[in-house]
Design a protein that fits this description.
By secondary structure, this protein is of the alpha+beta class. Helix content is 49%, strand content 11%.
């Protein structure tokens, strides 16, 4: 996963200053997807209407999906309204697929809710490798290690302030802090 982290850092370093200055928070992920990657972000009420969307079992939903041939990221509008941090993560996750996996697959890359959020119950199937890679990329783009380390100190290690500064959900921030901040 260190390679994915480096790819995310390289990706961020290539963003023009008029899109993001590399310092201000939260990272403007939608502008980056649109202006830098050329991907239109759409908030959609029913992602099952996407071309080629999979059939879902009862209780399953999609958080987002990438339509590489159309150059679009579709985001679950209801989830976005309820959890803005999750919406940001979903956009970054799909951007991760765009950066990491689009050459391997020309068809849509669909992400079920369980693919964006890691399994919490032991009975859930493991996350596919491509989904895990997109999660690592998303976290590294939304919460760059250098900025997270700086803000961790500047915010007095206040978890909720960090979530607010980075526009991140508590779950995503907790995982990222665990990955970036070394225990003392």
């Amino acid at each position: 996963m260190e390679e994915i982290e480096r790819l995310a850092e390289t990706f961020l370093a290539g963003i023009p200053g008029y899109v993001w200055d590399g310092e201000s928070l939260p990272v403007p992920i939608e502008e980056i997807a649109d202006t830098h990657a050329g991907l239109l972000v759409r908030d959609v009420e029913d992602l099952r209407t996407a071309p080629g969307a999979p059939s879902l079992d009862q209780g399953q939903s999609l958080s987002g999906l990438l339509l590489p041939t159309a150059g679009e990221i579709w985001v679950n509008a209801e989830e976005g309204r309820q959890w803005p941090g999750r919406r940001r993560f979903t956009i970054a996750h799909e951007l991760g697929h765009w950066r990491l996996h689009r050459d391997a697959q020309e068809h849509a890359v669909f992400c079920r809710t369980a693919s964006v959020e890691p399994p919490e119950a032991e009975t859930r199937a493991p996350i596919p490798v491509a989904e895990n890679e997109a999660n690592v990329f998303a976290a590294a783009v939304l919460m760059p290690a250098r900025l997270l380390k700086e803000q961790y100190v500047a915010c007095g290690r206040d978890f909720y302030r960090l979530c607010g500064k980075f526009g991140a959900s508590g779950a995503a921030m907790g995982r990222r802090l665990h990955a970036v901040i070394q225990p003392r």
